[in-house]
Design goal:
209 residues; Rossmann fold; 5 helices; 32% strand
């Protein structure tokens, strides 16, 4: 069983349709009880970091997700989900995250012309290396909607980045079984569907789908 986290602050309809289009395995809503036996955890979301973590706590999911990740269960965070993987966030105060990726969530810093906050639209994404989500290190173009981003402490955790203003900004991470993307693959047409298919293929090859 693949556990799909519903943070109750976003519409899951578009991502469920994307899962259907790539032939994803069936999912069940994540609960404190079923995360312990799940094959993978999918953590999509939109909105503010503090609200997302509050929803995880209210549903009793914070510690079960941490425990599942520690046991090697694949975890994929999407949009707000990648940020929740971090140690902390500075969005509207200081908040503690799941702590699955060493780093913190910080506000985008537009220092060049044409760059705005929030960053909304299509951005070229360049993989840093071959990985589960980018097995052939193939660049792509993905749809973003965000004002904050995850700044990792470990450069090796960065799977892909985009150029924002005068610096590269992390938009995908992988540390073993813990992965995340800042963009919306479900809204990113072929490149987005390809990335989701790579993740589900990884699950299949490892007997988790």
């Amino acid at each position: 069983m693949i556990a799909l986290v519903d943070l109750n602050i976003g519409n899951l309809g578009s991502i469920m349709e994307a899962f259907r289009r790539v032939g994803a395995p069936s999912t069940e809503k994540a609960t404190a009880e079923n995360v312990g036996s799940c094959k993978a955890v999918l953590l999509p979301g939109v909105g503010a970091f503090g609200d997302g973590m509050a929803s995880l706590r209210e549903q009793g999911l914070e510690e079960p997700i941490r425990s599942a990740a520690a046991r090697g269960v694949p975890v994929l965070g999407i949009c707000l989900g990648i940020q929740l993987l971090a140690m902390t966030s500075e969005e509207h105060g200081l908040h503690r995250g799941l702590g699955l990726i060493r780093g913190k969530v910080v506000k985008l810093n537009p220092t060049g012309p044409g760059f705005r906050v929030p960053n909304i639209g299509w951005c070229d994404v360049t993989p840093s290396r071959e990985s589960v989500l980018f097995p052939d290190a193939r660049p792509g173009c993905f749809y973003h909607v965000h004002s904050f981003h995850l700044r990792t402490d470990e450069p090796a955790d960065v799977a892909a980045s985009m150029q924002y203003s005068d610096e590269p900004v992390t938009c995908a991470v992988e540390q073993g079984n813990v992965m995340g993307v800042q963009f919306h693959p479900e809204k990113s047409q072929d490149d987005g569907l390809r990335l989701l298919d790579q993740f589900f293929d990884y699950l299949r090859r490892n007997g988790r789908a």
